[in-house]
Write the structure tokens for this entry.
Amino acid sequence: GLHARHVSSCRGARLGRREDQGRVDADAVFGERLDRAYALASEGNLDDDVLVDAGELTGDEAKVLKALADCSLFRALKPEQLAQLAKAAELVAYEPNETLVKQGEPSDSFLVIIDGVAVVTADRGDGDVQLGQIPLPSSLGEVSLLLREPRTATVTTRSAVEALKFSAKAFQAM
């Protein structure tokens, strides 16, 4: 069934979006803090504690950036590119037993799972077959989105899961 999802960014508002033009631009503030944090971590140390202890990032912000840096899809990116990437995502919390993507459905986004347990299953004609558990952090759905094809498998949470969600529009902008 559908569960209530908690959608936020590292800062409590959707990253990369300006909901209220009259307030201080949260994206700019976040970007400045990222720049300072990465200056401190310029030797390649993206340890959550270093960035948080430096007072530049909250725990969630550091967790997101560390997950992006550790994700095989983004390993070649520089810290400043990871910061830009983080701005294009939504941090989404999923409940246990919630479907993240469903086989056969159109691809409208891709995810980077940063915390929790999720499993991949596929219907091979004679019922669902479990293909495995998703290691952390991992991206899913980017190939279907790139090829504009339906999802090739179903991914379901087995615990509470946190994931970065990138829309098709954000993906095309990359």
The first helix runs from residue 26 to 40. The radius of gyration is 17 Å. The CA atoms of residues 30 and 138 lie 24 Å apart. Confidence is low (pLDDT under 50) at residues 1-27.
